[in-house]
Amino acid sequence: ALNNRCTFGKAEPRLGVSKLSWTNRAISNVSTFTPFGTVYGAETFKDASGVEWLIIAADGKVYRTRETSGASEIALPSGEFIDYPVSFTQTYNGMVMFRGATRSPLYMKSIGTGFQSIVAEANTVSGATSENPSDGTQPIPNADNGEWVGNRLFIPHATAGEKDLLGISDYLNATRYLPVRAQARINQGSSDR
């Protein structure tokens, strides 16, 4: 048989794929669910209580959804409108939204607070005997993506003159890095992207 499924003990035509209602976005005061338009990025996020969410950037906003729970909006900084490709990376205690080389990343500590701009903050470990005696850390660089490995965020990025840089965040802090000490080169000497 072609295009066939066996359900309830007998062969029947396969009717196609069914879109799950919880993958739609709910609009207040409307009794139906509306599908997403253009999706610019999606990733799973496990919150502090162990609940796994699907995070979706679509139609200018960011949404959270999971099975049996309709999509609801996650807060963004005032005036932000997502109409470009993004990537998400789960970290030890949050999620980073990478927005490309021309836009700074956003950080979400919890679903309730939403995504926020990364602000300058003092390193909690400083002093003459520490890894960064005068702090000197900066917000993580603009990039297309990053990867959380060994409790540090690894971020391939470029500058005007360098194409092969890898920024490495502070330990257990996905928002800060020290450009001189916590930066590496990919394929040093050839400046490959």
Task: Tell me about this structure.
There is one protein chain. By secondary structure, the chain is mainly beta. It is built from no helices and 18 strands. It has strands spanning 4-7, 10-13, 25-26, 33-34, 39-46, 52-58, 61-66, 69-74, 87-91, 94-98, 106-108, 115-117, 138-139, 147-149, 152-157, 165-170, 173-177, 183-185. The radius of gyration is 21 Å and the shape is elongated.
Shape: elongated
Which structural class fits the helix and strand makeup? mainly beta
Helix content: under 10%
Count of individual helical segments:
0
Question: Beta-sheet strand percentage?
Answer: 35-45%
Low-confidence stretches: none
Order of helices and strands: EEEEEEEEEEEEEEEEEE
Radius of gyration: 21 Å
Compute the average pLDDT.
81
Largest sheet: 6 strands, antiparallel
List how many beta strands DSSP finds: 18
- N-to-C terminal Cα separation, in Å? 50 Å
Quaternary form: single chain
